[in-house]
Automatic annotation (TrEMBL):
Organism: Streptomyces flavofungini
Domain Pyruvate phosphate dikinase AMP/ATP-binding as annotated: residue spans: 18-219
InterPro entries according to UniProt: ATP_grasp_subdomain_1, PEP-util_enz_mobile_dom, PEP_Utilizing_Enz, Phosphohistidine_dom_sf, PPDK_AMP/ATP-bd
PANTHER family in alphabetical order: PHOSPHOENOLPYRUVATE SYNTHASE-RELATED, PPDK_N DOMAIN-CONTAINING PROTEIN
The protein's name in its UniProt record: Phosphoenolpyruvate synthase
Chain ranges of the PEP-utilising enzyme mobile domain: 597-660
Length: 675
């Protein structure tokens, strides 16, 4: 029914919760009680359901959800395929027009926000606070429609999958809402969310309101009944917050968590939900540690800032470790600890029996915020870092600890369609391995075990492990040397690659090796087995034929930096990742590619920073590169042709018309261009 696909936000409470969601309904009830709520329009679950049913989106969702978790390391890829479908499928024009008309009315008053209102949100047991996405302020209908797609796609993120323990919501709703420029903003609790003591308290901050809800901002917590709160807040704001707390509890009949904005002397309410309590993660009662194989026990433990690591890539690593254990394939170990300073000696002694390497990495928060230390100094480092991640009970802290393998070599391997294993090897730790910036030594191992050295690369740097903050590998200049590997090591890499590919169907294995033995670090799944390269060293990166106009990208330094900063990789790397697409370095490169139809990008190597361009380019030509880097995987998954041509920068000029195929690059028309 058309009349319940897009409805005024203030009328959302008149529809069933599965249609508009509890978030939109709460705002409608507050508006009905006379409180200030920014105007908006609810795009209901029926609208999103019709988009899914009238396009290929619905079938993709069903197929991928059915297969979700069938392969331990395939969860991330299944979710990624759903997100791609949501952000790249054209929506039915009549449904787009409905949202466009609503957006244009709101945009006539100023910028708008797109906010989720998933029917399962804002419950007393599971709030889903911060799990789904909101975007804005947005100034055009095109921005609104793109944001709607990305926010819908966030329903199928690793974060949502982990929070819901694998039971992803099947319905999605959202609303467009007028953006209110904040003078102050915060979250108001009608009672203390930890102690449940009566009396409203609020977190208050100044600046961007999204910083408060995302946890990035620096907020001050105030008890509004405390007279000193009047020294921090304007009296009008303090009185308005107290009134909001009283009216909200009277209206809903229970304690509330309210998001608010103070603008031009007026209090606006942006969200009202019950204070989550029933199934929230609990504060620890005693120090403990969990090996990376015990994922289930960690769902209900307060891990503080470490939870983000657990809910993202680490969950894949845990499943991978289980798979490797079943196949007798070695991999490095990890553990979580929740501890107090007085517990560090005991925990370090216990962990020394679990962790086996000389050095370990300790993280108290997100990737790159930790330290590297000798395992023998673990107790001291845990004690010194205790204040980095205090939990709900500040006596406790959480940390994530992982082994660091002092490897001589690292690289990638895969089983090709003819049964051959291809191995790309680099000196361990060198910058540029994942980005595609280095040419590897390449080995192939036939099904019968015969080794062929396709290409032995020369390097002039090695890395060694140094304890300290951040990344642990430190490169050192050396005289040039040839990087060969022993037959025993090559055969061991081939063995573990075959074992994983036989189990998973197809995979690209990332490994460490030293002393003739290999160890798995990670696995990425592709759409099928790779064809054998057309020339030694993997000159064919991705098959197919494409014609277009040359665009040279001679300097990849900024794109490399963006890729490292944003952790651009195979998963969540393109147009469905708002953080990536908001980066100025990425958007400038995307804009350059989109100025002309059918662009053939010419670049020095397959940098991970080029991954966001894959959806917009017809093909790629690189001066050097390898078959198994992240960019190569994405090119093959998208079906975008790419080859290596050593003299591409000298022979191919901007504006030339060329054809890229497995046979090479053919100039169709150069328009008398001079390089």
């Amino acid at each position: 029914m058309k009349q319940d696909r897009v409805v005024p936000l203030y009328r959302a409470a008149g529809f069933p919760t599965p249609l508009t969601g509890a978030k939109a309904q709460s705002l409608a009830r507050l508006h009905g009680a006379g409180l200030a709520i920014p105007d908006g329009v609810c795009v209901t679950s029926r609208w999103f359901g019709e988009v899914a049913s009238r396009t290929d989106i619905g079938e993709t969702i069903e197929d991928q959800l059915r297969d979700l978790g069938a392969v331990p390391t395939g969860t991330g890829r299944s979710l990624e395929l759903i997100r791609r479908a949501l952000t790249r499928t054209l929506w039915p024009e009549d449904l787009v027009l409905e949202v466009r008309a609503a957006a244009e009315r709101l945009l006539g008053e100023g910028p708008v926000m797109v906010r989720s209102s998933v029917p399962v949100e804002d419950g007393a047991g599971l709030s889903y606070a911060g799990v789904f996405e909101s975007e804005g302020p947005l100034s055009t209908t095109a921005e609104v429609l793109s944001a709607l797609a990305r926010c819908w796609a966030a329903l199928y993120s690793a974060r949502a999958f982990s929070y819901a323990r694998g039971q992803l919501p099947r319905e999605y709703a959202a609303f467009l809402q007028t953006w209110v420029r904040p003078d102050a903003h915060g979250v108001l609790f009608t009672q203390d969310p930890v102690t449940h003591a009566r009396g409203p308290i609020t977190d208050v901050a100044w600046g961007n309101a999204t910083d408060t809800t995302s946890g990035r901002g620096s907020a001050t917590r105030l008890a509004l009944a405390d007279r000193d709160s009047g020294d921090v807040l304007p009296h009008e704001l303090r009185d308005s917050l107290i009134s909001l707390a009283e009216q909200g509890e009277q209206l809903f009949g229970h304690a509330l968590d309210l998001e608010w904005v103070w603008s031009d002397g007026r209090l606006h309410t942006l969200q009202a939900r019950p204070i989550t309590h029933a199934t929230a993660v609990h504060a620890p009662t005693a120090a403990a540690w969990w090996p990376d194989s015990d994922v289930g026990a960690l769902h209900d433990v307060d891990l503080g800032l470490c939870r983000r690591r657990f809910e993202g890539a680490l969950q894949k690593h845990i499943w991978l470790r289980r798979q490797c254990a079943a196949l007798d394939v070695p991999t490095y170990r990890e553990a979580y600890v929740v501890y107090r300073p007085q517990d560090t000696e005991r925990l370090a002694a216990e962990l020394s029996g679990h962790l086996r390497t000389e050095f370990v990495q300790i993280n108290w928060g997100a990737r790159g915020t930790g330290t590297v230390a000798p395992l023998a100094e673990l107790a001291d480092r845990l004690k010194r870092g205790h204040d980095r991640n205090p939990l709900a009970d500040p006596a406790f802290c959480a940390a994530h600890i992982g082994e660091i393998v002092a490897a001589e070599a690292s690289g990638f391997s895969a089983v090709l369609s003819d049964g051959t294993v291809v191995i790309e090897a680099f000196p361990a730790g060198l910058p540029g391995i994942k980005e595609g910036g280095l040419v590897p030594s390449v080995f192939t191992v036939s099904a019968e075990g015969a080794i062929t050295r396709e290409h032995i690369a020369d390097f002039d740097r090695r890395c060694r492990i140094e304890p300290g903050e951040g990344w642990w590998w430190r490169p050192q200049d050396t005289p040039p040397y040839s990087f060969d590997r022993s037959d025993a090591e090559v055969l061991d890499i081939a063995r573990i690659t075959r074992a994983l590919c036989d189990s998973l169907g197809e995979a690209r294995v990332e490994w460490y090796a030293g002393d003739g033995r290999a160890m798995v670090r990670d696995v990425s799944l592709e759409g099928g087995r790779l064809d054998a390269p057309s020339a030694p060293g993997g000159q064919l990166i991705s098959g197919g034929v494409a014609s277009g106009t040359v665009l040279n990208l001679p300097d990849l330094a900024e794109l490399d930096e963006a890729a490292r900063t944003l952790e651009v990789s195979v998963i969540g790397s393109g147009t469905d990742n708002a953080a990536v697409m908001a980066d100025a370095r990425i958007t400038a490169a995307v804009a350059a590619v989109r100025r002309t139809d059918n662009v053939i990008v010419v670049a020095e190597y397959p940098s991970a920073g080029l991954i966001p361009l894959v959806d917009f380019a017809a093909g790629f030509v690189f001066q050097r590169g390898n078959l198994l880097c992240h960019t190569a995987i994405v090119l093959r998954e998208r079906g975008v042709p790419a080859i290596v041509s050593r003299d591409a920068a000298q022979l191919l000029c901007d504006g030339m018309s060329v054809e890229v195929s497995p046979a090479g690059v053919a100039v169709v028309h150069d328009q008398e261009r001079v390089c």
